[in-house]
Amino acid sequence: MPRRTIWRRCEAGGLWRMLLPGVVLLGNGEPTEEHRIEASLLHAREGSVLTGVPALRRYGLRNLPDPDDVHVLVPAGRAIASTGFVRVERTRRLPTPRIRAGVPTAPVPRAVIDAARRTPDVDAIVAMMAEAVQERHCLPRALALEIDERSRIDGRLLRALAPIWAGAHSVAEADAWNLWARSGLPEFQWNVKVFDASGRFVAKPDGWCDEVGFAWEIDSLGYHSEGDHFRATLARNARYAAAGIVVLQTLPSRLRSEPDVVLAELRAAFESAQRRPRPEIHTVPLKSAT
User: What are the backbone angles phi and psi of residue 140, rounded to the nearest 5°?
Assistant: First the structure.
């Protein structure tokens, strides 16, 4: 087809739409995300790999930022520039892609770290990492390896990963981990299952100090105060009491709005647990992702 015909059909009000240089949408509506991804890979040419947030969406992750562009990786020697909505990154570490819905897609650890590098909000980074691990897409050490293999290690990413490595499953639990790290208290475990002396399940506390049998729950008001969630929380607390476990409940918002007050409460609750004999209980850590 003559080039002038293509340009004419892509003019304002025309039948087609020019998405990227040399890539035309055969329609004049707004392109979907799938259109943008396909156009980006066509622009980057054969062998390019989708990464970052668009890649993570293809794995089903939900706690993601909303970037305006499509991030693709190409071999280091390829002379392709970013343009329009496509962000082209040349790399000497081009990953072996996985085909997700027909698209060559970076593995989850690489996609998470590529997205995190371009995300200014640390909470968003923690949320991505936590979901990737909790939903068993990857291990924390795989994320650490991706960070380590970069030419310049990003301390911000390592700090975001630290509570996830320890077992935190959310931004609120990461806040709790960071507060505990300031407390000077003995080691806490995160999201372990606690059983009484008879082997009956008690709870899976957000934070657990096995030395004295002390549980720390980060309970959001909206989730734990209504309907079945409220009844489940009351039943959980009754099991804690029956097993002789001291438990501290903290609203997530207070971890940031009044951290020093929460820190004092945490230490006081620990000392209370320390003063009584440790109950006969044991824990089982949650299985890691494979």
Answer: -55, -35
The per-residue pLDDT for 154 is 79
The number of beta carbons lying within 10 Å of the beta carbon of residue 199 is: 7
- Which of 95-124 are b and which e, b meaning 16 or more Cβ less than 10 Å from the residue's Cβ? bebbeeeebbbbbbbbbbbbbbbebeeeeb
pTM (global) more than 0.90: no
For residue range 193-244, what is the model confidence (pLDDT) as tens digits?
999 999 999 999 999 999 999 999 999 866 545 567 889 999 999 999 999 9
Q: How many degrees, rounded to 5, is the angle at CA 132 between CA 108 and CA 101?
A: 45
Q: How confident is the model at residue 286 (pLDDT cuts 50, 70, 90)?
A: low
Collapse the DSSP code of 75 into the 3-class scheme (helix H, G, I; strand E, B; otherwise coil) and give the result. strand
Give me the helices (H) in the chain, please.
Answer: 3-9, 33-44, 52-58, 108-117, 122-134, 140-148, 155-166, 171-183, 221-224, 227-243, 254-257, 259-275
